Amino acid sequence: LSKRLEGIFNNLSGQGKLTEEDVNAALREVRIALMEADVNLKVARKFVERVKEKAIGANVMGSLSPAQQVLSIVNEELVEVLGGSDGKNKLDLSGNPPNIIMLVGLQGSGKTTTAAKLANFLTKQGQRPLLVAADMYRPAAVNQLKTLGKQLNIPVYAEQAGADPVDICVHSLDYAREQARNVIILDTAGRLNIDERMMQEVMNIRARLQPQEVLLVADAMTGQEAVRVADDFNQAVSLTGMVLTKMDGDARGGAALSIRSVTGVPIKFMGVGEKTDALEPFYPDRLASRILGMGDVLSLIERAQETIDQEEALKAQAKLQQGKFDLEDFLNSMRQLKRMGPLRGVMEMIPGFNKLAAMPEMEEALEGDQLKFIEAIILSMTKEERRNPDIINGSRRKRISRGSGTTIQEVNQLLEQFGEMRTMIRQISTGKGPWAQLARQY
Ligand code: GDP
Ligand code: MG
């Protein structure tokens, strides 16, 4: 997506605010990305409307291109819709123990597997869970849970075939107390489709046991179908949360966005594999970038926002364009870049630097301890020398090398590098000369 947006914005430059046209063009791409991620059409439309309101007229930050600016608003909004700031994505075990977690969902959605994963997860957090086999609809279900419990060394409460699921759950409470278990996980029966008897059964269990958490386990691969299932279950048993399973497949998680905005039910966990440790707490920001397929870009945007002072960036850019670039700017840029980590990606984000970034020479210049050298040398210069490097003659070089604990050769080398960079920048910003030609190829 970010590549496509860059394309749209390539011809725009230097505008201070996002115009409606910019935003519309970008949002067309965003809508397509959402559809590709299997987001419900209505939800996508509503979402895009909201982003539009926020984006039009927003100031373009000095360090971001318009495309990145729109993307960053889209990302913020996605995180928000996925529950970024409401804190409801956490499991609530604050009731009197034993706390009960009830899992509901269609057959094959991953309930039994998730029950075991949750028990494993909670055990690692120092809890003492008990698994309860309350799926009496599928004969193999009880054994499946027993096997998983044995693997994890977590007790499983089960009864004979033909026992009533509500009774089983009620009995498990006593068993949990006897065994000093403080969390009970109920694995209930599903059907292939929404079915009245299944619903009645989970409604009965919910009413009798009053679980602290009622989690719908839904298969992310089923996309739109999962939205309907969530809506139905939520109306019948009022869910406290969801576990989206099979997120290790190609599902891009659009279902999560749809479910959250249609039902308001928070997503609490993601299943990411068949093994019992393949469960992750739900992080809205991670899923947001996955939905937009732009993980790297977003983390770069974040880092840029954290480290680049907007005004500094604008000032540096202005100086670059005027071809005025002194050793102080050189040092500041190097420091900013160093703080921002992996060089190549970061430089691409800075106006004026994006073309330079593609050049291998630049990467070399900042590797390893180079920056320390550069800092030491530049800091040993007087203000005047930094502003006007051309005055640095032989005796000044000697003084600087002594002051910085480096050799004269190293001081010379730095000045040479700086000189090259200044030439390079001047050529690129005026569009004339071999460096400008080279930059055009990148
Ligand atoms: P239930 O009928 O709802 O209890 O579903 P099961 O727990 O028996 O799971 C059905 C199938 O989905 C099994 O083959 C599981 O191994 C598989 N499964 C469950 N969760 C995940 C997951 O997060 N990722 C993958 N790849 N497979 C899963
Ligand atoms: Mg099962």
UniProtKB/TrEMBL annotation:
MF terms (GO), sorted A to Z: 7S RNA binding; GTP binding; GTPase activity
Keyword Hydrolase: yes
PROSITE patterns: SRP54
Organismal lineage: Bacteria, Bacillati, Chloroflexota, Ktedonobacteria, Ktedonobacterales
Chief place where the protein resides: cytoplasm
Keyword RNA-binding among record annotations: yes
Signal peptide: none
Boundaries of every SRP54-type proteins GTP-binding domain copy: 266-279
Keywords, alphabetical: Cytoplasm, GTP-binding, Hydrolase, Nucleotide-binding, Ribonucleoprotein, RNA-binding, Signal recognition particle
Subcellular location: Cytoplasm
GO BP terms in the entry: SRP-dependent cotranslational protein targeting to membrane
A Pfam family assignment: SRP54
UniProt gene name: ffh
Enzyme class: hydrolase
Protein's organism: Ktedonosporobacter rubrisoli
Gene Ontology cellular-component annotations: signal recognition particle
SMART domains per record: AAA, SRP54, SRP54_N
Similarity section: Belongs to the GTP-binding SRP family. SRP54 subfamily.
Quaternary structure annotation from Swiss-Prot or TrEMBL: Part of the signal recognition particle protein translocation system, which is composed of SRP and FtsY.
InterPro entries named among the record's database cross-references: AAA+_ATPase, P-loop_NTPase, Signal_recog_part_SRP54_M_sf, Signal_recog_particl_SRP54_hlx, Signal_recog_particle_SRP54_M, SRP, SRP54, SRP54_GTPase_dom
Positions with a binding annotation for GTP: 105-112, 187-191, 245-248
Protein name according to UniProt: Signal recognition particle protein
Catalytic activity: GTP + H2O = GDP + phosphate + H(+)
The protein's Enzyme Commission number: 3.6.5.4
Domain notes per entry: Composed of three domains: the N-terminal N domain, which is responsible for interactions with the ribosome, the central G domain, which binds GTP, and the C-terminal M domain, which binds the RNA and the signal sequence of the RNC.
Function: Involved in targeting and insertion of nascent membrane proteins into the cytoplasmic membrane. Binds to the hydrophobic signal sequence of the ribosome-nascent chain (RNC) as it emerges from the ribosomes. The SRP-RNC complex is then targeted to the cytoplasmic membrane where it interacts with the SRP receptor FtsY.
